[in-house]
Amino acid sequence: MPRSDTPAALGFRMPAEWEPHHATWIGWPHNASDWPGKFGPIPWVYGEIVRALVPSEIVRILVNTAVHERQARRLLAHVGVASTQVEFFRFPTNRGWTRDFGPIFVRRTKPRPEVAIARFRFNAWAKYPDWKKDDGIAPRVAARLKLRVFPARSGTGDVVLEGGSIDLNGHGTLLTTEECLLDPKVQVRNPGLGRTDLEAVFREQLGVTHVLWLGKGIAGDDTHGHVDDVCRFVNPKTVVLCRETDVRDVNYRPLAENRERLQGMRLEDGTKIDVIDLPMPAPLSFDGQRLPASYANFYIANGAVLVPTFNDPKDRVAIGILAELIKDRPVVGIHAVDLVWGLGTLHCLTQQEPAVSTT
User: Fold this and answer.
1) Which domains are assigned to the chain?
2) Per annotation, catalytic residue among 180, 231, 242, 348
């Protein structure tokens, strides 16, 4: 029998990223091992991101200590960010990839507007040993903001889920990949849980009615297949899907397979999906390692769409495609060549907090 105490049963759903935000959450960088030998420029990239966000929404920044906060404040002042638009939370983290460990917010409008947290667990992509601080962020945020928390469980166990592994259109459809959530051997988040189990969790926790399963992610992705490097909704009926045109590239076949899958899929209302090609930048490597450079890792904020750029001729093409599709806010490029050495870019480090009311 369906449970009556789940977020969906109580009228909550996870909004699409383009719906109004109250704030964007980020974790100020501090773990130099994420960018070995290249940490120096990373806080400055974060400063550019915050500067692009603050004209239209609050930025809530996780810091480890008072000293860490002073460092962040000093840098933000240098780049011209007004302190009135930034709020600091001294909640220590292991890393700064807030999309994956940060709170996944859900919202309802009736019987009264309310935002709550769907509490998924985090285990560092089932790969790294240091994750307990990151896993504790969602309940700490809930306690500070006095928000309800709905633990995500399947059977008697907690469910692990990273925010970068899903993308939603706000009308009931969710995108994800089999590689990330269903691989039985590599980076297994939820041993024993299958497709049906996870779809039930998405339905109960996020208000999802329809799940689209793509195949694999892109080469170099440390998460083993996050969808936010591959395919993203830009409106309720349209996705952008990365396309590799070089048949010799390792990404060519999996991206082509994802395109074939999407051609046969339908949205929650039975209509076809508008699939728009998004180019892939030329392969980017550092110290002999292929990096997950992708224009799909953009972030839709209230007042701008932030797109990672890679000193590549296709930067302008990708920005132009997104500008044609998302016309109600400017599309802004953020230099991400240094950032992607951490194996993630703009979407990976941001997490949206929806506005309580959309009016």
Assistant:
1) 21-354 (3.75.10.10)
2) 348
